[in-house]
Amino acid sequence: MCPVVEHEGCYISIVTMQRAVLLLCWLPLLHHCQAVNPGCACVVYSSLYSPQGGTFTSPDYPKKYPPNLDCLLYTFTGQLDEIIELKFDDFNLHRIHKNCSSGDFIKVFLHLESKGVSEYTPWSGLLCGGLGDIPAKLYSSGPVLILELHTEGASTNATGFTGSFHFIDRRKFEIDGQPIPGSMCDYEFVSSTLTPLRGRFYSPRYPSSYPKNIRCSYRFRARLKERIRVLFEEIALQKGDLSCINRADLIRVHDGRGTTAPSIAVLCNHGAEIEVLSTGADLYVEFVANSDWPGQGFKAIFQFQPLDDSPPSLEVDKVAPGAVTGTPRYSVIGPAVSATTSSCDNVFNSDLTKTGIVTSPGYPNPYPARAYCRYEFQGRGKERVQVIFQEFHLHDIYTDPKECDGIDSLLAYVLIDGKMEKIDAFCGSMTPRPLMSNGPKLSLEFNGIVSSRHVRGFRATYSFTENFGITTGRQLPEYPCAFVFNSNETRNGTFASPNYPGYYPRDTECHYFFNGQPKERVHLHFHYFDVEGVLPCGAASASDFVEFSNYMARDRKYSRHCGQLKEFDVDSDGKFFRVTFKSNERLDGTGFNASYVFYDEEDNFTVKPTQGHASTCKGPAVMFLVLQLVFRIHLQA
């Protein structure tokens, strides 16, 4: 039990026989509690006395806390149907080691089955350092949460911590599905007349941290003419910006009934407002956690959506010159514009058409002044919307406006963090580069403010593509964007970033796997490289990057590449090589264009001739590679 004495409204706690009496006047309510050892002092915050929550602080805050506190327990106790939320407003504990294993630290107990802890009770984590080194909030998985404070050595200038706590109804985080018998965390969601069309699902223990070494599944089954929409509102797995291929904790979404169905999303690290749409009546979400330090997990909503078989209504007064309507697989739609309202809206749905043509109103004739049009594109699964312009000629005032403000323009928007954010603006008469969405949604907004009889507007083809605009290699179903290049199929060729030579899409990860025969290696030559970021291409600089590896796992031999680089070469150490491209949600570049060739690792470095249907070695880059290999032979001779 904790030795506690009350004195004139303050509480006196005897910590050890050798230690002076410590005044705990900053503690609002002291109780007896079970502790690690009889030397522990403790304070209890109970929802019986503080149902609305309250605040807590370290001893003497905001002055520096006392040294050599063997342990001080903060115990938060709620009702059986409650969990505890802690938020630190200030945090400053002297840190010696990054892992907080010594020095001043707090042990955190989030998953307790009783109100006490002992030296054998596993803790959820250790906290030390500054406010930026700890989670923004902590949640218990049950009605009890305990913090155990330790300070060692001489006094420092660290001021400790202050924070707030609240008691939350845990029933707010119940999953709106049926648990599968015999499983720990598998759920099924079936659409019927007796079940709701929408609901929520969470990672285990959410909003507290999920357990280690688990695998959970969430199986959705819609009716025949329904599709499934899932929105991951928050994802907090592991910190950092590593590729998902190197992560132990991840969410994989399969477009079908099980893990053998194609993957349309692989999610890891942190994210918010990520939308996934099925192409059929089944969707399978798999959550795998194998890391040593679990994160908070995820929360998501699902919805069974009716599939609309009818084409979108185009309310126009007249058909634009040259505009025709094609089959559901291919349509050519030139939006007309009302002579009275000078506005038009169009919706292009991949359920009805996979490719087509979009134009400014009245094209190829001049568009009218004060014309406003919106073009909404909606895909499914791993589809991305790609727009390639054939003609672009808007009225230009021959100045240098900032992002086309105040003049005739076409603006592009994609979904970022749940909001449609502008990613580009086009004006004047320069034909834009190819445009690609970061997900299944894209919106174009046309503003024909002035117009003139000399401008024709724009014409572009659109397509809902699953290959991310990457036209070489063989696409793999295990990842949303992954391509394999096998030497027994093609000895040499090219590969590029998504949507090259246009700007690559944001929030995108693509893998390029090169598989040679035994005793073969692969040589890569990058002709062009423009990937947004600054060295060392890490999370601190919010950089996009390209990484190389001789393994599926991370290879520390190679540093990340980003920025605008001159031509360079990379060689594998063996028959396998991986190239991974990863972009974030912030800025973008035009990516990269590269060539590859497989060659023998024998001393003479001879390049095998092309066999069968393999592509022919052409172009200055390949000639450069051949000359380079000949030069090596000459040196060895």
Write the layout of secondary structure elements.
Blueprint: E1 4-7, E2 10-13, E3 22-23, E4 41-46, E5 54-57, E6 72-77, E7 82-93, E8 105-109, E9 125-127, E10 129-130, E11 137-139, E12 144-150, E13 160-169, E14 178-179, E15 187-190, E16 198-202, E17 214-221, E18 226-236, E19 249-254, E20 263-267, E21 270-277, E22 282-289, E23 297-306, E24 330-333, E25 343-349, E26 355-359, E27 371-378, E28 384-393, E29 409-416, E30 419-426, E31 435-436, E32 441-448, E33 457-465, E34 474-475, E35 482-486, E36 492-496, E37 509-515, E38 520-531, E39 545-549, E40 563-565, E41 568-571, E42 576-582, E43 591-600, H1 619-636
Parallel strand pairs: 4-6, 15-17, 24-26, 25-27, 35-37
Antiparallel strand pairs: 1-2, 2-3, 5-13, 6-12, 7-10, 7-11, 7-13, 8-9, 8-12, 14-15, 16-23, 17-22, 18-21, 18-23, 19-20, 19-22, 26-33, 27-32, 28-31, 28-33, 29-30, 29-32, 34-35, 36-43, 37-42, 38-40, 38-41, 38-43, 39-42
